[in-house]
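hiii, so i know i said id send this last week but things got crazy w the move. better late than never?? heres the sequnce for the chain we talked about at the cafe, plus the structure i predicted for it. fair warning i was half asleep when i ran it
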Amino acid sequence: MKFPGRRRHKHYFPVEAKDPLTNQLNATERLHSSYITGIDQIVVDIEAKVDQAFLDEFKLQRGMSQVIDSDVTNALYERLKLHEMVDYEYAGGTVGNTMHNYSVLADDRSVLLGVMSENINIGSYAYRFLCNTSSRVDLDYLQPVDGPIGRCFTLIDETGERTFAISAGLMNHLRPESIDKSLIENSSALVISAYLMRTQGAETMTEATIQAVKYANDAGVPVVLTLGTKFLIEQDPTWWANFVEKHVDILAMNEEEGLAITGFEDPLLAADKALDWVDLVICTAGEKGLFMAGYVDEQLKRETEYTLLPGAIPDFNRYEFSRAMRKADCDDPIRAYSHTAPFMGGPDSIKNTNGAGDCALAAVLHDLSANVYHKINVSNSAKHQQKAITYSSLSQISKYANRASFEVLVQHSPRLSRGLPEREDCLELVYWDK
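okay and structure toks below
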């Protein structure tokens, strides 16, 4: 992918690499930067392989995401440690993963909002979170709390089914007054997840999230919602549809979450339905690949050079070479869709599916932020005569997102440890250029 910005790799082109004479005239100008802001429940992911008897012992519902109290948490963790059942412990959180992966892919700043233990001991969960988060993720805005952050147990049974047990700690105690208004207003996007709406009692995370969303809506900053789990959406799909329509600009989901909120099992139809509410949709569909849907003005549509694809919407990828726009910015909006099969047919062995969707979203955010970066630094570029919200076409973004998520599928951690390779023959010849 070729995005503007200060990048180490040769396949990125910096906007300052313009005409030498122009560079001399603007030598004193400092390039403005762009960044993404995300709000999350700060947690550490603990992965272990268990059997049904283990789940029954701790009264955990197989395949579901559930909150457990501190007593159960301590007993569960002690049992896993005693029998050496813990496979991995990583910094987690769906938005935390996205911010980390964005900063690794873009080699640029992102900002994470949430809570962090005020007193951190070596080897503690808070310590593990900090150690496994990119230094490019700005953690200066975290709210200090006197207590533990969250823990999320990913318990995998013999069939591969994943059961999630979440110990909240104080992760849901982010206060509305801890949200910096100017930080949100100057962001390229605000990223939230459905998990942030699952609070109870004295927990204030939902209030803080709504406050941040209001700041973003008022400032015209795109709000990106990742649905996170179908079980949460299934509890009240009508409420979620109304929330998305009122507050969200970009929706990220998988096919199960798409079914839960739209009622359509087909990921293409689910993405199409979601366009009734938002401007851009990313829908990951496992072995089927990744679907994207968005709007483009009739006058600015670009037809694909690839084979037209059959589906629930005939020839749906006809305008996939178009750059996505807000519907409100289109004089005559039409819908454009794109689909990309898994990179190189998918990995030979999938080591982890947890975080693959987060990484795909991080790639989309990289493109969105690159568009903002280029616009504020080269505002008179012909590229910005179109009021697009993405730098690249739907087709190219879809490929990039698929390629990035592949890296997570072939490793155990949900977080990237490095950016994409500088050059891949298979990527250049087969994937990008076809």
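btw The longest helix spans residues 356-377. thought thatd interest u
miss u guys!!
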